[in-house]
Sequence to fold (847 residues):
Amino acid sequence: MSSVAPLPARRPLAEVAVALPVGGTFHYLAPPPLDARLAIGHRVLVPFGRRQVTGYVVGFPESAEVDGLKAIAALLDDGDPLVPPALLDLLRWVADYYLAPLGEVCRTALPGGLAPASSRRLVLTPEGLAAARALETEGGPDTAEARLLRRLAASADGLLHRSALAGAGRSGKRALSALRRRGLVALAERVGGDRAKPRRETIVRLAGPLDEPALARLGRRAPKRAAVLRFLRERGPTPLPALRAAFGEVAPIVRALVDSGQVATEEVEIGRRVDWGLGAAGGGDAPAVLTRAQSEALTVLRAALASQTFAPFLLHGVTGSGKTEVYIRLVEAALAAGRGAIVLVPEISLTPQLVGRFTRRLGDRVAVLHSGLSDGERLDEWRRVRRGEAPVVVGARSAVFAPVEPLGVIVVDEEQEGSFKQDDGVRYHARDVAQVRARQAGAVCLLGSATPSLESWARATQRVEGASPLGYLRLPERVEARPLPVVEVVDLRRKLGEAAPRARAAEPPSPVSPALEQALAETLAERRQALLFLNRRGYATFLLCPDCGTRFGCESCAVSLVYHRAERALRCHYCGASRPAPAVCPKCGGTQVLQFGAGTERIEEWLRARFPGARLARLDRDVVGPRGAVRDVLKEVAAGEVDVLVGTQMVAKGHDFAGVTLVGVLLAESGLSLPDFRAAERTVQLLTQVAGRAGRGDAPGRVIVQSYDPDHPAIRFAAAHDADGFYAVELEARRELGYPPFRRLVNLRVDAPSEAAARRAAGWLAARAAARLAADSSLAGQVEVVGPAPAPLARLRGRHRWQLLLKGRGSAAVRRVAAALAAEARQPAGLSRGAMLSIDVDPANLL
Ligand code: ADP
Ligand code: ZN
Fold:
């Protein structure tokens, strides 16, 4: 009784990041009682320009930067904010490093359910609420204004979607503007978090025991009621939707039974846990003995974890060397120490198989965050993590922001994967953010790969100026001394004569070499599985009319359209445009339109014709539309129900199928011609990955790589399993050409509706960059400007694209120049109207 509750600190000012693509943060007044309730990370509704928008409280400034501050209109969260304060420090770092507005970063990082709905809503102001109350008590004329006020007052949260006005016609619109002029109603941009309320469900159960004679009597009078009671007696408490499934519309019956006191209902909050169909037993399938390399790596990692200081590592282990086992044990060590963990994997590796390996071992403590979740599911998982119920998060890119606290470990599997870099909006790289987060948390950061990025490999194996070192852990052999698969390279050039394009009617050339065909036949005869990899979707990569030379391209992008046979359509793989495939050339009426370049659809057809008895499956973005489809295909392969799986890089990644003994790569050089300095590196990585799918079980694996460019170093080194050899050669090339890790890059891309406008805007930027470098002697020799030049993909979705590449010795100098240019571009005299500038710090993709 003697203790006195301390008075809550009063914080009359708040710094707010608004969830809009505008720079900076804004100060607002926090009127009582808000001043005592606000916490860092809370979502608030604030006036912004002429409307109200959602923002995140990111700080409590001592003094205001300007006079006449506006006040926060509402607090949108109760209790603990969803965003822990430490996470906000990370978001601030992201905003600063990637030159993105903090509010935009919040919107990207936080679960979809928190992103602002694009829809505008109407909200009653306090004056409006008073007016509505007055109407209720005192009455008044039934005008359109009064009706609108009443409707707003009646809606649970004082909000109405603007479309609610749709039926009200002109008088409704006029009423709205009158109410807004009088300050009774405001337009609010509200977070969609409210769309994703925890789901509630009605459970129906018997109120007491049933006696049979009474039931029989009821059955004569009201047979359906009796049937529902019998059902409940048999099944126990049942969710209303399940009853509906059994009896049709049962709500009136249930209501009658409630009224007669025979059943009771209750509302329960149901977790929207995603069913991966795997169970979550905990404890299962741990190998009894670790390999020596695994235990050595774990000794180092556990010591680093115990030290509670930031320690970054690269785990470089060949495919099948047991990296995942190391991740799981490190996560277990973190849990044992009372800390949590985040495991990042590329979206396409986030398969039931992989998730199952974690959930079987760690049980319910795992939350899974992937892009297939609905807003509500994502929010549920986020809340479970925030409450500490799920201290382990397995997820794709944005899971790097999951509210795990305290964090002990971040794993980034397949750290070289391009999908860790977001390529629009806030262009962050989850692998790099992971290292910063681990530094802030004093955690272990473990980057794992069979084929690390050249940057990480260099940081781990030698001193790179301007880059922090990584501890280097190796798993040089497969578990149980399984051999790496034997790789044969098939030179396609010898077949060039044969492979000449033919007319559409004629039999096209075989996309599969005799060597691969024979290996397929043998594999099928042995009842083993094969996997064919070709990184092109569709049937034919382009169509061409030999009479007039027309090549069928996209109208809004500078690329060819891909022929998809199943839909008889030409599709753009960049903008998604689709049109019926022409039977004759629309330009000249030519009837012999030719198909070039086989895609996965064509390979599937070839297999069907050549091996009619084989069970085939295809895996690429065309067949995986609904998320479940990938799961089904992978499950079938794992269960041995598929003999040959053909697909794009979706088949190359991470899967551990013990029955696959043959891997065929149909066109190994397909990525090499891309105008990107990482093309060779990516090819080596992809070939190594896909080859690594073979021979993971008891039988040894075999890989056949077909190529028109078999002597290319990327193909030679990959075939020899000599990644280190490739890295050494490639690193020297990067040094000479001035690319990462020796230089840091920022790509400034402008797009505009016309080629001339894009060129002009890029020219202006280049001139401003040159002026800046000339004016600032501290930048001399530090930053170099390359371009401007048209982007390799010169037109996308109707916008023409040019770019300017900044190269620097350290990231600070290049980012400083980029930030200054961005600020100049925003000035009235800046970038010409219609042109847009996007800034990409550490670009992963220069197309
Ligand atoms: P990676 O991730 O390096 O490709 P995985 O972690 O998928 O390798 O391991 C390959 C296979 O070996 C898996 O089926 C895994 O369960 C098994 N495995 C891992 N470690 C061991 C071990 N020490 N002894 C036996 N089997 C193991
Ligand atoms: Zn297009």
About this structure: The pocket of zinc ion (ligand 2) is lined by residues 554, 556-557, 572, 574-575, 577 (CB under 6 Å).
